[in-house]
């Protein structure tokens, strides 16, 4: 029997706190589809203020939030969106923008730091004179933090440049801000500044912030009005959703400061893993709560066997490829959990077990 479990698969595995459960039990609710749920309205009002946008809309998931945002901006089938080849929208959202919205993705290579080169973005914008054969570019999407690049942060200055490019060509800019609060804490820049150049953004509440369910879309009043209709079309219109929004409000008000500790523990874990023979990672590139590392050829275990071995000790991690593993820190991971995890990795790869790792 496993005596201890350290779940590092994702920051989506966080459990609602006692304060969140109490808020859910006592939530004031009404019918949100009709627009009258007071807890939903409180959350949306606060999120609009935090992000510096006119309005906000609660949605069941970040995937739906991104899909709705893309479809609002690309409301004509055959539109094209420019986005990173390593972006969540492109890889992990079931191709929904294409299968549901008829929107064509045009990818630009993500650099190691999560950015896309500005000149490559501009080169990907279709010439309107070729509209008889080309899809029409209408939108650019960024992701902050960029998860598949290891939780790297996009600066406000970089986002401003992409926003200026979008305006130059009459395009819109959407930011997948699933972990925008992580970026804000890591950069020391307010969320509203990081989203200043964006026409819309989706912000996840159930990752690092620890709410049980939901994301929020933010943008102009007219954008949110159209988004509300699409939410209903996609089956995301819920009734007494204030029960969920009440927990999200607790997460927003209480858990944002905890992200700094998450980042410190991620750095601690990365530096420890970097000392273990058989693993390779760039500890200096760990900016937030996500760590990617490779299991080298010739190591004692393959990535798959290492994951299975760790699971026997209660350490749950995510295998990303035949040679790479991802771990994600969240606020329910303690420094003791980090030390225990390092001890288990050392035992698996070098046969060394530290006494303080028991």
TrEMBL record:
GO terms for molecular function: L-allo-threonine aldolase activity. It is an enzyme of class 4 (lyase). Its EC number is 4.1.2.48. Keywords: Lyase, Pyridoxal phosphate. Its cofactor is pyridoxal 5'-phosphate. One of its GO terms (cellular component) is cytosol. One of its GO terms (biological process) is glycine biosynthetic process. Pathway: Amino-acid degradation; L-threonine degradation via aldolase pathway; acetaldehyde and glycine from L-threonine: step 1/1. The keyword Transport does not apply. Threonine aldolase involved in threonine degradation to glycine. May play a role in the removal of L-allo-threonine. Belongs to the threonine aldolase family. This is low-specificity L-threonine aldolase.
């Amino acid at each position: 029997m496993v005596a201890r479990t350290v779940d590092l698969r994702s920051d989506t595995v966080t459990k609602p706190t006692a304060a969140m459960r109490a808020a859910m039990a006592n939530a004031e609710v009404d019918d949100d589809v009709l627009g009258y749920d007071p807890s939903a309205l409180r959350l949306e009002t606060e999120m609009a203020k935090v992000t510096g946008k006119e309005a906000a809309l609660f949605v069941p998931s970040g995937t739906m939030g991104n899909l709705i945002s893309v479809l609002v901006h690309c409301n004509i089938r055959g539109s094209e969106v420019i986005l990173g080849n390593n972006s969540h929208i492109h890889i992990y959202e079931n191709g929904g923008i294409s299968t549901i919205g008829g929107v064509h993705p045009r990818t630009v290579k993500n650099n190691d730091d999560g950015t896309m080169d500005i000149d490559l973005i501009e080169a990907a914008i279709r010439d309107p004179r070729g509209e008889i054969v080309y899809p029409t570019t209408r939108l650019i999407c960024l992701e902050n933090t960029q998860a598949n690049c290891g939780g790297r942060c996009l600066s406000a200055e970089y986002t401003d440049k992409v926003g200026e490019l979008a305006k130059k060509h009459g395009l819109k800019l959407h930011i997948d801000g699933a972990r925008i609060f992580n970026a804000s804490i890591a950069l020391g820049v307010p969320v509203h500044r990081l989203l200043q150049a964006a026409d819309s953004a989706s912000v996840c509440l159930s990752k690092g912030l620890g709410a049980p369910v939901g994301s929020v879309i933010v943008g102009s009043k007219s954008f949110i009005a159209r988004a509300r209709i699409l939410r209903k079309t996609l089956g995301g219109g819920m009734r007494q959703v204030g029960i969920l929004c009440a927990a999200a409000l607790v997460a927003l008000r209480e858990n944002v400061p905890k992200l700094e500790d998450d980042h410190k523990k991620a750095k601690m874990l990365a530096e420890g893993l970097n000392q273990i023979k058989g693993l390779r990672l760039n500890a200096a590139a760990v900016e937030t709560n996500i760590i990617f590392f490779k299991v080298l050829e010739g190591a004692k275990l393959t990535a798959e066997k290492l994951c299975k071995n760790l699971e026997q000790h209660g350490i749950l991690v995510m295998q990303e490829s035949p040679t790479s593993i991802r771990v994600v820190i969240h606020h329910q991971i303690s420094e003791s959990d980090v030390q225990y995890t390092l001890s288990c990795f050392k035992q698996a790869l070098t046969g060394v077990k530290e006494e303080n790792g028991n």
